[in-house]
Amino acid sequence: MRNIPPIVKNIIILNAIMLGITYITGNFMYEKFSLFSFESELFRPYQFITHMFMHGDFLHLFFNMYTLWIFGSVLENIWGPHKFFLYYMVTGLGAALLHNLVIEIEIGSAMKAAEAGSILAAQKAFTLMNTPTVGASGAVYGLLLGYGMLFPNNTLQLIFPPIALKAKWFVLIFGAIELVLGLTDSEINIAHFAHLGGMIFGYFLILYWKKKNKMYY
């Protein structure tokens, strides 16, 4: 842990603590600190921040924190803690915003169908309103995007499938997969548009830094 840069290390520790508290308190943490739809009675503005430090289970936490450690450590060492933390929060908040906007569109569509007499549509609208969203995945996808933009020709060795890819292709493929799944996957347990939101906001923030010559300071 001594070799992990401070912001990455503290984010990992905070996420682990939050998961531990969630295991102890259960629904209390999900109802208070997960991100809910704007239409939900459980929605609170602060959830845009708190949901980023919560996870559904240990594997969810492990894979997000492992990716944060791998890519976030590189970016924090380059940008420094303040710029890295800003990037992490912007991509996480952007991910949550896009996710909730897409959910709003889906709820509106379901409500129209419900008004026409569809019971299934009414059930879907209710489920969308009251399904909690948790996880750092949006910010983590932003980190993937950031790494790919700064080191496009670095080779990444995947474990599954066992192939090597340049970072730029890795990011493009993952982005395309999330877009396709976001448009076609009917399940609501994976926030595909949140992943895309993290990448989109990361892309424009890095473009802004490049334009203002503030990429490295």
Task: Give the helices and strands, then pairings.
Blueprint: H1 6-25, H2 27-33, H3 47-50, H4 58-79, H5 81-115, H6 119-130, H7 137-150, E1 155-157, E2 164-166, H8 167-184, H9 192-211
Antiparallel strand pairs: 1-2
Helix pairs in contact: 1-4, 4-5, 4-7, 5-6, 5-7, 5-9, 7-8, 7-9, 8-9
Notes on the structure:
By secondary structure, the chain is an all-alpha fold. Helix content is 70%, strand content 3%. It has helices spanning 6-25, 27-33, 47-50, 58-79, 81-115, 119-130, 137-150, 167-184, 192-211; strands at residues 155-157, 164-166. Strands 1-2 form a two-stranded antiparallel sheet.
Which key features would you list for this structure?
single chain, 217 residues, mainly alpha, 2 strands, 70% helix, globular
Question: How many angstroms separate the termini?
Answer: 26 Å
Major sheet attributes: 2 strands, antiparallel
- Spans of at least 5 consecutive residues with low confidence: none
Helix content: over 70%
H and E order:
HHHHHHHEEHH
Structural class, by secondary structure, is mainly alpha
Proportion in β-strands? under 5%
What is the radius of gyration?
18 Å
Q: How many H/I helical runs? A: 9
Q: Give the spatial strand order of the biggest sheet.
A: 1-2
Strand count: 2
Taken from the alpha-carbon principal axes, the silhouette is globular
Mean pLDDT: 91
